[in-house]
Amino acid sequence: MSLKLPAPTDDPTSPGDPTAPGDPTSPDDPTAPGHVPAASAAPAPRGGGKGRLRALDGLRLVAALMVAIYHLAFRGSGAWRGQPLEIFPHLSHAAAYGPLGVQFFFIISGFVICMSGWGRSVKAFAISRISRLYPAYWAALILVTVVLFVLGYKTVSRTDLLTNFTMLQTPAGSERVLGVSWTLWAEMRFYVLFAVTVLWRGATRKRVLAFCALWTIGALYADSSGQEFLKLALMPEYAPFFIGGIGLYLLRRFGHDLLTWGVVATGFLLGQHYAVLGLVPKPGVAVTFHRSPTVVIALVAAGFAAIAAVTLVRRVADVDWRWLTTAGALTYPFYLVHEILGTLVIEKLKAHTGIPDYGVLALAIGSMLLLAYLIYRLVERPLTPILRRALTHQANRLSEPRPASTG
Asked: Which member of 51, 200, 356, 390 has the lowest number of beta carbons within 10 Å of its beta carbon?
């Protein structure tokens, strides 16, 4: 028995995919529930404002829903037993632009990683990222594997499954269990670049601006050089979004200035280029649906504008609706499980019920949000601090001087 899912690909037109990009609800991030800012945490924006950015959590869920609706209402033809463009003639046209949710994740990630890494050592930063990303990822990986096995669907080989537990299956060339996990590989490359070029000496405004400039130049060179390793390391198609998010954080921390706005503007201008390049097929290429370059550019602009609003406009940044933080906490596990398990829900509901198609879609998304909540409460909340303490203890032991040999 084989589940009719589209083959996962790194092509941004079909993101198997936020990091879960970003993760401003991380327990060690300033927007996390119950977070107590450290002395080195970023100050509020000039002119006041609170440290918690609940509205940014809400945007993360919006980005995840964009990707989910794309996967379930545009690509999921096997589960619907028909073409989504015919089943959802209006929704599918909007859902076709859902892959841009990944780019929105990357903008948010640039902002949040710069914010949460400020004042931290590379060791502390690495521990925070590992303890944040792995518990929910492992839970989703095990859950999806068990469900597919129990229902008799084809799964990956044993060796590929074991490789998936490292979260390094993409660079290792192994088949992915969670199609969306390719974006986690993009996130990891960003973390490494930021850690080894900024955090190892300590984040400062000048150092971060230099990082943004050098990464932009390096990414453009990599794209034009034809050297695959440079493209892999510097990610020219995604770098502008991470860099734009970093620029927005600098504006929030240090206030407005022409140079930093130039970083954000460059991120948008290059980002829309790569978004159009990835989402709009070249003339003469046969496709079932043609995306409009104008719409892609407008949506990228809207994404940058929305993230700028919730981080820089005081009245929006100060929104204190607690449910937004809960919504943000669901984003990562929802993002991990929605594609495969959501498709299964649709397939079973279509086969065994007479629920209208829009109702089936709503139930699929709703059930995935409920599952995400359970993963968050039963896995992430208890295991993340345990893993962080264990990693911190081990790192501290490694840094202790060894006793002198008496031999």
From this structure: 356
- Those residues whose C-beta lies under 8 Å from the C-beta of residue 288, and which sit 6 or more positions away, are 83, 85
| Tens-digit pLDDT profile for residues 240-259 | 999 999 999 999 999 999 99
Its pTM surpasses 0.90:
no
Given a contact cutoff of 8 angstroms between Cβ atoms, the answer to whether 190 and 113 are in contact is yes
What pLDDT, in 10s, does the model give residues 150-202? 999 988 999 999 999 999 999 999 999 999 999 999 999 999 999 999 999 99
Residue indicated by tokens 């999921």 = 76
Say which amino acid occupies 327. A
Burial of 282 (C-beta count, 10 Å sphere; 0-12/13-18/19+): exposed
- Residue pLDDT, tens place only, 90-146: 898 899 999 999 999 999 999 999 999 999 999 999 999 999 999 999 999 999 999
Angstrom distance (rounded) from CA 341 to CA 366? 12
User: How many angstroms separate the Cα of 219 from the Cα of each of 8, 124, 228, 233?
Assistant: 25, 27, 12, 9
Residue in 59, 53, 54 with CA at minimum distance from that of residue 322: 54
Place of tokens 């407008």: 298
**369: Cβ–Cβ under 8 A, 6 or more apart, which residues?**
330, 334
Distances (CA, A) of 127 to 100, 120, 247, 392: 29, 11, 24, 7
Phi/psi for 240 (5° steps) reads -60, -30
Task: Show me where the domains of the chain are located.
Answer: 54-396
- CA 46-49-52 angle, to 5 degrees, is 125
Q: Which residues have a Cβ under 8 Å from the Cβ of 126 and sit 6 or more positions away?
A: 191, 195
Six-digit token string for 222 = 């990599």
Taking a C-beta distance cutoff of 8 angstroms, is the pair 376, 334 a contact? no
What's the CA gap between 318 and 336, in Å, rounded?
29
